[in-house]
Specification:
With 205 residues, the protein is of the alpha/beta class. The chain contains 3 helices and 8 strands; from the N terminus they run αββββαββββα. Strands 1, 2, 3, 4, 5, 6, 7 and 8 form an 8-stranded mixed beta sheet that branches. The longest helix is centred in the last third of the chain and has 26 residues.
Length: 205
């Protein structure tokens, strides 16, 4: 019997794969963005009397509207038209960035926030919701502005609905550059987070 030599066949297969280009592309060919946008909480801690039994709140990342399930920044240009702002890239999806602003603001309000990612005791309340709007609106000529809309739901430790409410904030922008729009969204996000934290603090009483 003759031994079958597989080396020529293997070399031919490899040559064919190389000619077709890489099967898996690591990192992509796009140049990295010049900058990444993020959100920062601006709330300062409020002096409150220590509670006998501290109230704990679990803050879940909000669900995100379809246009926000990306690192890009949506621009409303018409009643049924959306674009994305050129050069604007978030460091994370905006619903996760907004969750951190919410959590930091609630902590500054004097409550204890439980991280849902790790093992932890059951919280007294759970804050969830939907980030329905988080972008730039240029539909009105001469009045570009950003909008933040959060539909919040607050449940007890047993899952019973405590309250639900919509929170809105807007802020004007001087121009449509990513840095200016990002700063305006940070301002509006912090105002929404402040209203939410006051609402949660009232609900615990």
């Amino acid at each position: 019997m003759r031994a079958i030599t597989t080396a020529p066949l293997l070399l031919a297969t490899l040559a064919l794969l190389v000619s077709c280009g890489p099967l898996v592309q690591i990192g992509g060919n796009d140049a990295p963005p010049a900058m990444l946008l993020t959100l920062r909480a601006t709330a300062t801690p409020v002096a409150t009397a220590p509670a006998t039994t501290p109230v704990t709140v679990m803050v879940l990342p909000p669900a995100a509207a379809g246009a926000l399930q990306t690192l890009r920044l949506p621009v409303t240009v018409g009643d049924v038209e959306l674009q994305y702002l050129v050069g604007a890239t978030w460091s994370e999806q905006p619903n996760r960035l907004f969750r951190r602003v919410l959590a930091d603001t609630i902590v500054a309000r004097g409550l204890i926030v439980i991280d849902p990612r790790g093992p932890s005791p059951r919280a007294d309340m759970t804050l969830s919701g939907t980030l329905a709007d988080f972008g730039l609106d240029v539909r009105v000529l001469g009045n570009p502005h950003v909008n933040v809309r959060y539909d919040a739901v607050l449940n007890s430790s047993t899952g019973t609905l405590i309250a639900a409410r919509r929170f809105d904030a807007s802020a004007p922008v001087a121009d449509k550059s990513p840095a200016v729009v990002g700063a305006a969204l940070n301002d509006a996000a912090n105002r929404v987070a402040g209203d939410v934290s006051d609402w949660v603090a009232q609900a615990k009483n």
